[in-house]
Specification:
Pfam families: M20_dimer (PF07687), Peptidase_M20 (PF01546). Its cofactor is Mn(2+). Residues 187-278 form the Peptidase M20 dimerisation domain. Its EC number is 3.-.-.-. One of its GO terms (biological process) is diaminopimelate biosynthetic process. With 390 residues, the chain is an alpha/beta fold. It has two domains: 5-181 and 299-388, Zn peptidases (Aminopeptidase), CATH 3.40.630.10; 183-292, Alpha-Beta Plaits (2-Layer Sandwich), CATH 3.30.70. It is 35% helix and 26% strand. It is built from ten helices and 16 strands. The protein has helices at 5-11, 13-25, 34-46, 103-119, 141-147, 207-225, 263-283, 303-317, 336-341, 372-388, and strands spanning 50-54, 58-63, 69-76, 126-133, 158-169, 173-176, 178-181, 183-192, 196-197, 232-241, 247-248, 251-260, 287-292, 299-301, 322-325, 344-352. The protein has an eight-stranded mixed beta sheet, sandwiched between helices. α4 (103-119) crosses α10 and α8 (303-317) packs across α10. The radius of gyration is 24 Å and the shape is elongated. The two termini are 15 Å apart. The relative contact order is 0.19. The model has no long low-confidence stretch (mean pLDDT 97).
């Protein structure tokens, strides 16, 4: 008999809503998710699902079915340092902290998946691993979880992830084939000159003027050295230097971020940033220190895995409600660490509802979701994992 995952998910919708509102009322930042982690472990223990602790406050559960294949499903659990300004019964009770990116929904959906797939584990052609990831918004708990071995013992064959999306109406999903999210490289450049009186610039080496040239020159890497068909961004977010109008300072600090869509472009832009900055600064008699951080990699959807997700979702919500996305996002997502290790699929779950006024953007103080998306997300995750195990 065919398993009706949507019906099973709707049957527990009240429990899902209760869980989500509890998480929403008690947000915790990255690697501080102790209460959240305890609630997850309490739920898994109640359902008879084994688990291990990982990545400080993360949890990895496992449901053992009948077979050697293993599918991983990720849900991130951390909140943001933001004041919740919604007027509702379940708004944040923690000042300055809020689930403004929907991770409360992601955690809830994964718990719902755990409950349902565990109840039918004898029908599963393999195992399910449940990745409750901490610190997605900061350094990315995924890379720590991977280093601690969550993709092994048993070996994980494929990984599924989702993110709620307020620009998609509830009942719909968005799927992008190929590259989904950009890679990220924050950087800091310290330009050192020689201080002088503002009236006698020839006696010093002006790091402000050098910095101005650097800012403009760096934009040429994107506009003139990468194919215009491939998105990339180099943003200067801050410049700090100087203390008075008539003093040439000794040092200026520039900070910014690189976003690229291809692994090869990521390496190229980092290399060229160093070459351009060092060459320009030295030509103007200054010195520099450059620090480029290794942040999230590109997120790639595996074609075969994504096609099974699309087919599964069409069976759950109808072909007309599965939207194929044309453009990738310049935002970053720590699920990318999983996608670099195993064939993966990541998609967007509609949570917006214009009729209910649920239209406010993520990472904003008024963000909310249509909670009908919870059971839909559970059903699609269950169906996709079930099919991938075949």
């Amino acid at each position: 008999m065919e398993l009706d995952f949507l019906k099973m998910a709707k049957d527990i919708s009240d429990e899902l809503i209760s869980l989500r509102r509890d998480f929403h009322m008690h947000p915790e930042l990255g690697y501080e998710e102790h209460r959240t982690s305890d609630k997850i472990k309490e739920f898994l223990k109640k359902e008879g699902i084994e688990y291990i602790e990982t990545a400080c406050t993360g949890v990895c559960g496992i449901i053992r079915g009948n077979g050697d294949r293993t599918i991983g499903i990720r849900g991130d659990i951390d909140a943001l340092p933001l004041e919740d300004k919604k007027d509702c019964d379940y708004c944040s009770t923690v000042k300055g902290k809020m689930h403004a990116c929907g991770h409360d929904a992601h955690t809830t959906i994964l718990l719902g998946v755990a409950k349902i797939l565990n109840s039918v584990k004898n029908s599963l052609n393999g195992n399910i691993k449940l990745f409750f990831e901490p610190a997605e918004e900061t350094t990315g708990g995924a890379q720590v979880m991977i280093k601690e071995g969550v993709l092994e013992n048993p070996y994980v064959d494929k990984v599924i992830g989702l993110h709620v999306e307020e620009n998609l109406e509830v009942g719909k999903i968005g799927v992008k084939m190929g590259v989904v999210n950009a890679a990220s490289n924050p950087f800091t450049i310290k330009i050192k000159g020689k201080g002088a009186h503002g009236a006698r610039p020839h006696t010093g080496i002006d790091p402000v003027v050098i910095s101005s040239s650097v800012v403009l020159a760096l934009q040429n890497i994107i506009s003139r050295e990468l194919p215009p068909t491939d998105p990339a961004v180099l943003t200067i977010g801050s410049i700090h230097g100087g203390t008075a109008q008539n003093i040439i300072p000794e040092e200026v600090t520039i900070s910014g971020i690189i976003r690229t869509m291809r692994t090869e472009h990521r390496a190229f832009v980092k290399k060229r940033l160093v070459e351009v900055v060092e060459g320009l600064v030295h030509s103007m008699r200054g010195e520099c220190e450059i620090d480029i951080e290794e942040s999230y990699p590109c997120l790639y959807n595996n074609d075969e895995t994504a096609k099974i997700l699309v087919s599964s979702a069409e069976q759950v919500i109808g072909e007309e409600n599965v939207k194929m996305l044309e453009s990738p996002s310049m935002g970053v997502e720590s699920f990318a660490y999983f996608s670099m290790e195993r064939p993966s699929v990541f998609y967007y779950l509609g949570c917006g509802n214009k009729e209910k006024g649920i239209v406010n953007p993520a990472h904003g103080s008024l963000f909310d979701i249509d909670e009908d998306c919870l059971s839909i997300g559970v059903a699609i995750q269950c169906k996709t994992a079930f099919e991938l195990l075949k």
